[in-house]
Hints:
Layout: H1 2-38, H2 45-57, H3 61-69, H4 86-110, H5 120-135, H6 141-153, H7 156-183, H8 185-198, H9 201-207, H10 220-244, H11 248-261, H12 263-266, H13 289-301
Helix pairs in contact: 1-2, 1-3, 1-7, 1-9, 3-7, 4-10, 4-11, 7-8, 7-10, 7-11, 8-10, 10-11, 10-13
Amino acid sequence: MKELDKNTKTLYKYLAWTFGLAYLIQFFAAFMNYKLQQDNAGANMILVAAVQYLIAGMMFIPLISVMLAGGKIKEIGWKPRIKGCVPQFLFAWFVPAILTAIGVVLYFGIFRSHFDLTGSYLVAVAGQEGLDTITSTGMTYGTYIIINCIACLTYAPLINMFPAVGEEAGWRGYMYPALREKFGQKKAWIIGGIIWGMWHWPLMIFTGYEYGKDYLGFPIVGMILFCAVTVALGILCDYVYQKSGCIWYPAIFHGAFNAAATLPLTVTLTGLDKFRILGAAPNGLIAGIPLFVLAAFIYAKCKKD
Length: 305
């Protein structure tokens, strides 16, 4: 009983550290974003980039929090495993892109007029200069999209794996096993996914992270939907982790999902922010259907606690 109490206290410490540090970063990033808008300092690319890197660095907070809370960091499964893990590797590397592709077909099948290959997304993100840089080489925007799709299927999951492991070591490596010990497998998946989603809430409220601010029911609808997305993603990442016993495989899945998630936006007409809650990115209500279905299938196949 004392051991269980000790584990519970460590879990609470972990949650306090990971939420405290992450929320501190998010509130600061939101404040800086507000100041940039108020001061019309959007052209200060150095400051903008600094805020973006700060948010990206937040991905290592869960790993840091495990160490600060006194969790068993060495037992997470750091040693790469290849033998016997080929199915997990293929699942982690390619399934996110497949789910995203199916979601894109579903979304644009309903909203055909939202499909756009003019490069309006790139102009909105990087300015006209960004699009001109591509076209000046003789490359069409369609070719640019194809190149990014190839990157998504080849090296992008590997590159994104390294920041993603910062989160995965905390969520899948420590928190999910701790929750599983207390609540059983299925409840751990639900509770852990909701915690993961709530971890992003300040950014969603103050900066419109993931869905913008123009959709119906902002920010509550987006906060609830994103928790549903993180529950589904958490199930798939934890499925890969338990099958492989190696933290690098859920990190690959997480990284591959992040790589694939941005691609649908590059072919989506801008100025339609109220539809972002639906798609075309795989965290939308419609485009996320393949993700939800696969996670629900794995959840249903799991033996009762």
